[in-house]
């Protein structure tokens, strides 16, 4: 190993690992004491496989932990330094945030929102997004945030599944200099959904919007509300949020997280991984529409009283220097971003970061996809100037918080470019084969989690059976993560991408089956197959193969129509890079589309066994379509 990567912070300290290894439940219980409880739990973990309930009997509140705990000590500490893409700035202290959250919480109560009710939030990256999540948490309503890059149909499916009676949105959001009209999209999404009682609209971009009798303007509704709102004392197991994520079936899954266990996991991992100090200025570039934003923009930093930068817009707009301008302007000390963003920054050349003052940085993080060693080294050398440790954090929407990462706040271990290192204390992992047997060091296998951890999902919203089937049916009593991994002889983990039909496009999780059913829902399409292929910047890009209904002819217009159909149905994040028309799709004899084979064909590397294929002619045909069109 190259000793130049042997940097870290804190003191090497394996004591905590030893404690955690002896009894992980007791260990997590000791961690739970770090958050505020109105009443203490009587049972640390109730495990009715595969359902885990942490700190049963305990009463707590996520918003109280994120706001009141800090406000009582440091009301004037800056919580949010917000910058809009157009250069607007706002600063909110912890006291400001508490006041705004309390007012919105009172407004929600006035609209009839009760404990356990669902509230859908579809907002750009503005402080009111954080305020909305915390207002729900304060009164025990379950928030369900939808990323503002999703389109009307995706929003509708999620609102319909969660049966939210309130939707919080804005007139618009800013992206690359244009205004995305969010309220119009919501109008479309909730047409004829009678259970949606009210829509709260934040005026942000001041574009024209049509008001209906369900609509309430944020300022008019929230402005007059009382600035105090007691936090509900909620059971530790009370659901905090639903976050929809793509899986291997057509319908997105509503991952349901609880309160006390989730907060404990997020509190501890935020401290261990980012080694947070009172003087830090933290910047996580994730949108709150994704789990990274929930855990490490909202709950983690706020529970620690951190000061953070929130930015609405593209990190390379209006110039590729935007991200580095933010770092030098606000003196950012901790930067947490994605490999896709780093690949983009790297492509833009070293002159751009080199002409900005990045000396404030002390710790760098990455999340969401495997990071190529080359990009890791660039991050370490060009951005961190070989001074800043890199934390490569592996986790999932379902895990609630980080599972694998170095923990500079606890111990210093050598870094290996491209490896996320070791599980955080209190987590036991294995890499296993199809039969559940551990594979040898340096061999590829499936990543499983062997024990229960406090951030783990409670279930999938309204679908316990699917929860059991997706995560717990492949192996008995082991959580199946759906990722390939390898453990080296030093016990370091190398994450090798998804083992299922889930894509990671620019760090966003998309299901191939979801994309295929969207294509098939178009009137001209008989069948469709989608696969992901390596992409220089986005990590993976989407390639679609379409079989038209008989008699229909393919042309450039139809291709464009199909691409637009995906953008409108799922959202711009799902736009295929290439779309080919073919006569047949390669299938196994049992009728399953061979997506892996498609991927191999597109990359000219058919080496595997194709003996189960139903019609070998389809391979030649797909090769022909690709040759003709590329
Ligand atoms: C992938 C994002 C390699 C992985 C927090 C996982 C990673 C999926 C890493 C979950 C990493 C996340 N290295 N791969 N550091 N972090 N992944 O639910 O495939 O959007 O299963 O959660 O992202 O994506 P999700």
UniProtKB/TrEMBL annotation:
Indicate the segments forming the Acetyl-coenzyme A synthetase N-terminal domain, all copies.
Answer: 20-66
Cross-referenced Pfam families, in alphabetical order? ACAS_N, AMP-binding, AMP-binding_C
Query: Could you tell me the keywords of this UniProt record?
Result: ATP-binding, Ligase, Nucleotide-binding
Top-level taxon of origin: Archaea
Q: Domain AMP-dependent synthetase/ligase spans what residues?
A: 72-452
Uppermost EC category: ligase
- State the PROSITE patterns in the record: AMP_BINDING
GO molecular function terms listed in the Swiss-Prot or TrEMBL record: 3-hydroxypropionyl-CoA synthetase activity; acetate-CoA ligase activity; AMP binding; ATP binding
Keyword Flavoprotein appears in the UniProt entry:
no
Question: Which InterPro entries is this protein grouped with?
Answer: Ac_CoA_lig (IPR011904), ACAS_N (IPR032387), AMP-bd_C (IPR025110), AMP-bd_C_sf (IPR045851), AMP-binding_CS (IPR020845), AMP-dep_synth/lig_dom (IPR000873), ANL_N_sf (IPR042099)
**Tell me, which GO biological process terms does this entry list?**
acetyl-CoA biosynthetic process from acetate; carbon fixation by 3-hydroxypropionate cycle
Q: Might you give the EC number(s) for this enzyme?
A: 6.2.1.1
User: Domain AMP-binding enzyme C-terminal: where?
Assistant: 514-592
UniProt KW NADP keyword:
no
User: Which PANTHER family does the entry mention?
Assistant: ACETYL-COENZYME A SYNTHETASE, ACETYL-COENZYME A SYNTHETASE 1
Family note: Belongs to the ATP-dependent AMP-binding enzyme family.
Can you say what this protein is called? Acetate--CoA ligase
Origin organism of this chain? Nitrosotalea sinensis
């Amino acid at each position: 190993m190259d000793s130049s990567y042997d940097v870290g912070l804190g003191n090497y300290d394996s004591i905590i690992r030893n404690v955690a290894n002896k009894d992980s439940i007791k260990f997590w219980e000791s961690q739970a004491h770090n958050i505020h409880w109105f009443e203490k739990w009587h049972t640390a973990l109730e495990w009715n496989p595969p359902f885990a309930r942490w700190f049963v009997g305990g009463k707590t509140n996520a918003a109280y932990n994120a706001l009141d705990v800090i406000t009582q000590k440091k009301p004037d500490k800056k919580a949010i330094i917000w910058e809009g893409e157009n250069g607007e700035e706002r600063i909110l202290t912890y006291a400001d945030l508490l006041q705004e959250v309390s007012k919105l919480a009172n407004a929600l109560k006035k609209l009839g929102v009760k404990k356990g009710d669902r509230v859908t939030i579809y907002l750009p990256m503005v402080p009111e997004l954080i305020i909305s999540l915390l207002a729900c948490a304060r009164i025990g309503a379950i928030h369900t945030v939808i990323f503002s890059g999703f389109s009307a149909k995706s929003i509708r499916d999620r609102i319909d599944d969660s049966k939210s009676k309130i939707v919080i949105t804005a007139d618009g959001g800013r992206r690359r200099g244009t205004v995305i009209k969010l309220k119009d999209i919501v109008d479309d999404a909730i047409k004829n959904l009678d259970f949606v009682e009210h829509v709260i609209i934040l005026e942000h971009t001041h574009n024209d919007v049509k008001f209906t009798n369900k609509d309430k303007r944020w300022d008019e509704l929230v402005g007059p509300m009382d600035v105090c709102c007691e936090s509900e004392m909620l059971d530790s197991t009370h659901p905090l949020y639903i976050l929809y994520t793509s899986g291997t079936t057509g319908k997105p899954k509503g991952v349901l997280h609880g309160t006390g266990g989730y907060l404990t996991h997020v509190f501890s991992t935020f401290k261990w991984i980012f080694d947070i100090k009172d003087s830090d200025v933290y910047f996580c570039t994730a949108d709150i529409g994704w789990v990274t934003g929930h855990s490490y923009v909202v709950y983690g930093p706020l529970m620690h009283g951190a000061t953070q930068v929130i930015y609405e817009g593209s990190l390379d707009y209006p110039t590729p220097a935007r991200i580095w301008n933010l770092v030098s302007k606000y003196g950012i000390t901790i930067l947490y971003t994605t490999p896709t963003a780093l690949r983009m920054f790297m492509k833009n050349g070293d002159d751009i970061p080199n002409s900005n003052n990045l000396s404030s940085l002390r710790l760098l993080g990455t999340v969401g996809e495997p990071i190529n060693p080359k990009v890791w080294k660039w991050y370490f050398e060009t951005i961190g100037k070989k001074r800043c440790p890199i934390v490569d954090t592996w986790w999932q929407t379902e895990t609630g918080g980080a599972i694998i990462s170095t923990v500079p706040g606890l111990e210093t271990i050598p870094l290996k470019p491209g490896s996320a290192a070791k599980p955080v204390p209190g987590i036991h992992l294995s890499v296993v084969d199809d039969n559940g047997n551990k594979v040898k060091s340096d061999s590829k296998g499936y990543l499983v989690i062997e024990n229960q951890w406090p951030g783990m999902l409670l279930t999938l919203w309204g679908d316990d059976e699917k929860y059991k089937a997706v995560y717990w049916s492949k192996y008995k009593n082991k959580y199946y993560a759906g990722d390939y991994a390898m453990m080296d002889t030093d016990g370091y983990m190398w994450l090798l991408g998804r083992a299922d039909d889930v894509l990671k496009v620019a760090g966003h999780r998309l299901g191939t089956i979801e994309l295929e059913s969207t294509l098939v829902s178009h009137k001209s399409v008989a069948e469709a197959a989608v696969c992901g292929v390596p992409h220089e910047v986005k990590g993976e890009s989407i390639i679609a193969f379409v079989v038209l209904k008989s008699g229909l002819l393919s042309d450039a217009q139809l291709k464009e129509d199909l691409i637009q159909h995906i953008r409108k149905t799922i959202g711009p994040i799902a736009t295929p890079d290439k779309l080919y028309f073919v006569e047949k799709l390669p299938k196994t004899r049992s009728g399953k589309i061979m997506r892996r084979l498609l991927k191999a064909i597109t990359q000219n590397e058919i080496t595997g066994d194709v003996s189960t294929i139903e019609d070998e002619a389809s391979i030649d045909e797909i090769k022909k379509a690709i040759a003709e069109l590329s």
